From TrEMBL:
Pfam families reported for this sequence: adh_short (PF00106)
InterPro entries from the UniProt entry: CBR1-like, NAD(P)-bd_dom_sf, SDR_fam
Annotated protein name in UniProt: SDR family oxidoreductase
Superkingdom of source: Bacteria
Keyword Oxidoreductase: yes
Species: Actinomadura logoneensis
Keywords: NADP, Oxidoreductase
A GO term for molecular function: oxidoreductase activity, acting on the CH-OH group of donors, NAD or NADP as acceptor
Family: Belongs to the short-chain dehydrogenases/reductases (SDR) family.
Amino acid sequence: MTTTLITGANKGLGYETARRLVEAGHTVYAGARDPERGRRAAAELGARFVQLDVTDDASVEAAAKAIEADGGLDVLVNNAGIEWREPDGYIPGAAELTADALRTVFETNVFGLVRVTHAFLPLLRRSAAPVIVNVSSGLASLSKASEPGTPHSTYPGVAYPTSKAAVNMLTVRYANTFPEMRINAVEPGYTATDINQHAGHQTVEEGAEIIVRMATAGPDAPTGTYRDVDGPLPW
Ligand SMILES: NC(=O)c1ccc[n+]([C@@H]2O[C@H](COP(=O)([O-])OP(=O)(O)OC[C@H]3O[C@@H](n4cnc5c(N)ncnc54)[C@H](OP(=O)(O)O)[C@@H]3O)[C@@H](O)[C@H]2O)c1
């Protein structure tokens, strides 16, 4: 029996990933910062709710204690993420980037991922087949962002791609350190969810595909990679 925790599972790609992994027979903990939204989602999914705000030490530590007491963890999907938008939806660019804005995005996308990973590493290290999936983005790619004319180079935001580039390096460094684990960064593709005000052209079913694939990766699967459904991506 595989036990899996997904952060930010109350909606979007996290919710769809939870649905698919429940279907695949995993015991799924649906992490959500808001208890009402989280409980509702977990009940719909047939998952277990765990309150988990990735920006909050006490919340993450309590979640780790509860899951440890229930028997441990095999798979961690670091999915929770935010984009920096003005209330009217506008994404500020480099000229407007402030240290505070960058810190806010990093607080969830980077420090949150590290906080959760650090708290759950002792549980994962006791698993026979530990897996971590870090939900990155195509916008994390330095190669693509350096290529004139790509959507990656013309994307207006800076904080979000920078945070996901940090997620990619964290993925590689964790993978270097824990070769016994499968630790990969994935790009779901541009998917219609709240994070992009449903502008994405893919469905959540399509977007969750690579997350599910890497969350169910066996011991022979690659580790330390950055990929989408079609294979490895340029860093
Ligand atoms: N959609 C795309 O095109 C796309 C492409 C590439 C990568 N991604 C990545 O995919 C992941 C999922 O995004 P999505 O598209 O599914 O967006 P979404 O529908 O906005 O979902 C984001 C999830 O993260 C949760 N979250 C935000 N801050 C949190 C915190 N501090 N603690 C715990 N949970 C928190 C949200 O919870 P609340 O409901 O409480 O806000 C929500 O459950 C993100 O990492 C995103 O960067 C998305």
